[in-house]
Amino acid sequence: MKHTLDCTGLECPMPVVKAKNMLEENESITLDVIVDNETAKENVSKLANSMNLSYTVKDDAGKFIITIVKNSSTKVEEHKKGMVLLVKTQYLGSGDDELGAILMKSFVFSLTQSKPYPSKVIFVNSGVKLTTQNEEVIKNLKVLENEGVEIISCGTCLDFYGLKEELKVGTVGNMYDIVDSINNAESKMSV
């Protein structure tokens, strides 16, 4: 069964939500998802990849068509569980920002020294400044990433601070990814 889902003009995370719903509702489907921006293209492609589905991307005059194929024999992979750490700010704790920056640097270093590692570390709001501007923290996040920890920075947050082009570790995620990761985690922690 072939369907077309026109998601042009929709903001994050709606293209991913609509595509996921359509894929989950159908045992077998070839789904063309039409989006009009790079972020939506990347996010829908990540969805297909995370569900272990084959997909292709075609650039069609400023619009992207992501064709996702799901058939009844496709095994949709389970989400990786584990601990998810949500980093909400570039500072640890509230009070003095200089102290908060020192504490955050120490906290991230301490993560590299303590096992088990979290399965994902997600950065939102000013926390994305840690994946783009703070070289000491970035160095330690790369250690975690090399050990298999998924490092995700909120795309909306990167855009808000004008930092998307400065991302130095991990990948860009969307709010749907973030909520899905938190919902499927065995344990959660936020700082």
Automatic annotation (TrEMBL):
<dbReference type="InterPro" id="IPR036868">
    <property type="entry name" value="TusA-like_sf"/>
</dbReference>
<dbReference type="InterPro" id="IPR027396">
    <property type="entry name" value="DsrEFH-like"/>
</dbReference>
<dbReference type="Pfam" id="PF02635">
    <property type="entry name" value="DsrE"/>
</dbReference>
<feature type="domain" description="UPF0033">
    <location>
        <begin position="3"/>
        <end position="70"/>
    </location>
</feature>
<comment type="similarity">
    <text>Belongs to the sulfur carrier protein TusA family.</text>
</comment>
<dbReference type="InterPro" id="IPR019870">
    <property type="entry name" value="Se_metab_YedF"/>
</dbReference>
<dbReference type="InterPro" id="IPR001455">
    <property type="entry name" value="TusA-like"/>
</dbReference>
<protein>
    <submittedName>
        <fullName>Selenium metabolism protein YedF</fullName>
    </submittedName>
</protein>
<dbReference type="InterPro" id="IPR003787">
    <property type="entry name" value="Sulphur_relay_DsrE/F-like"/>
</dbReference>
<dbReference type="Pfam" id="PF01206">
    <property type="entry name" value="TusA"/>
</dbReference>
